[in-house]
Amino acid sequence: MDLQKNFVDSVNLFFKEKGKEWLDSLPELISYCEEKWSLSMRDPYTLSVNYVAPAIKEDGTEVVVKICIPGEGFLDELEALRLFKDQGMASLLDYDQEKGIFILEKLSPGHTLAEISDHAEACRCAAHVMSNIIVPAPSETRLPTTKGREENLRRTFNQNPNGFGPFSKETLEKALNVFTYLNQTIEKYWLLHGDFHHYNILASEGDWLAIDPKGVVGEIEYDLIQYMLNRLPDHNVYDVTKTRVDVFTEELNLNKERLILYGYCHTVLSTTWTVDVDGSYEGNFHQFVAIFEKMYASTFGKSIEDRLLEDEF
Ligand SMILES: Nc1ncnc2c1ncn2[C@@H]1O[C@H](COP(=O)(O)OP(=O)(O)O)[C@@H](O)[C@H]1O
Ligand SMILES: [Mg+2]
């Protein structure tokens, strides 16, 4: 079977031996889907670590088949898709938990929000989508939380007390304090998309709908950071990020200070996720640490350090 090279590389990188076995079993899984749901699968979309392809059912209905490696990620996405049912998101039509398969409503025309080149306009469309997927967090859930993200950064700091990747001890400590402050002062918990960005927002009959929720529990302000890290311009990243922060906070009536602080601590965390054994890391994420720090100072007239001193932790 001829598979996209980036897809094969990513699956092998993330899932190692399990990924290789899964790739080998893909032809079988595709036949399984075609038989179980009486459909015919077409060529896949551009893939990352899941096999996603349009398909046509015997009665002519178009659907999308998403085949994932079964496990935690699949179960989180399943719970999120169910909780977001009828909420500005492509519908889940059926699934197979054991084999890690979703059958989804096919969105049409289905191009992504990345096709809108004006950053402010794209952001207003994204804000509209976000306003349609605002759902309170369920009281009991298996989904990860922003507290878990803080703990993840704490573990990295404890294991690397003198610094990690591009970060000094002081920066890790500061980001951790910001995360702690934010988690301790959450007033209301929401179900978050968990991977809200241009490539997971698709055009659907004159509107925009979300796909691919990972499911996280926390504040809406946190859910918007992933968007900021995508579809970057070659120049003026600061200005585009500022526009995005302004549009989101205005359109969705959000707390700008919390959004920028989440931006700061989350981009430290997501940079730590990319640090390789040779010490290299994702520069695209890293640049945002300074961007959010600068934006905080210019918006609030004080540094994040000064802000932290105002509250006791
Ligand atoms: N419901 C859908 N309708 C139309 N296209 C879809 C749908 N779901 C996914 N796609 C296409 O498949 C691509 C990958 O799907 P996605 O669920 O985002 O997978 P991944 O989790 O690997 O990012 C999307 O970027 C989009 O182009
Ligand atoms: Mg996606």
Automatic annotation (TrEMBL):
It holds the Pfam family APH_6_hur. SUPFAM superfamilies: Protein kinase-like (PK-like). One of its GO terms (molecular function) is phosphotransferase activity, alcohol group as acceptor. GO terms for biological process: secondary metabolic process. This is Hydrogenase expression protein HypB. The lineage of its organism: Bacteria, Bacillati, Bacillota, Bacilli, Bacillales.
